[in-house]
Each structure stands twice: as C-alpha cells, then as structure tokens.
Please model this.
Amino acid sequence: MKNENVVKFGWINTIEGYSYLALVFIAMPMKYLLGIAMAVKIVGMIHGILFVLFCLLLTKAWQEAKWPFKETIIFFVASLIPFGTFFTKNRIKTYE
Model:
C-alpha cells in the first residue's frame, strides 16, 4: 500500500523544483536583462507558496513514513539547490 503523504510529497518536490528553475532561469533574467520586474513577482509568489507546501508535506511525510531525520535534512537541502530536488526522486520512491 502506498503512503499517501509520501506520494504527495514526491509530487510537490517535482513541482517546486520546476518553479525554482523557472524563477532562477526565466523570471530573473527577464527582470535583469529585459527590465520586466513583474515576472519575478509572479513566479516568486508561486514558488514561495509551493515551497511552504513542500515544507509542510515534507514534515507530514517524514512523520508518517518514519524515515530517518537525516533523510529529511537531505530532502530539504536538496530543495535549496537548483536541480537538487530531481536527484532525490528515487530516494522518495523508496518510502512510498
């Protein structure tokens, strides 16, 4: 039986990773190279909401799946590095 909170965390992990890449590689160049500051405001707000959901679901998944605290730290730190969340996908699937 699949762990529902871990599955949700896997999804938000991927979506939050894409939003981070969009912020860093699309919205910020639009702001600083093209002068379109609204891009960072919109994408930044979406990314912020997704990051809060990521943190909430990380906590719920950790509690429900009972994985080691070290894993939780790895998932959190990976979310702060561009492309980091994509390297943790297989690790998350082991807890589903």
In short: The CA atoms of residues 20 and 81 lie 9 Å apart. The longest helix spans residues 4-34. Helices lie at 4-34, 38-65, 69-79, 89-93.
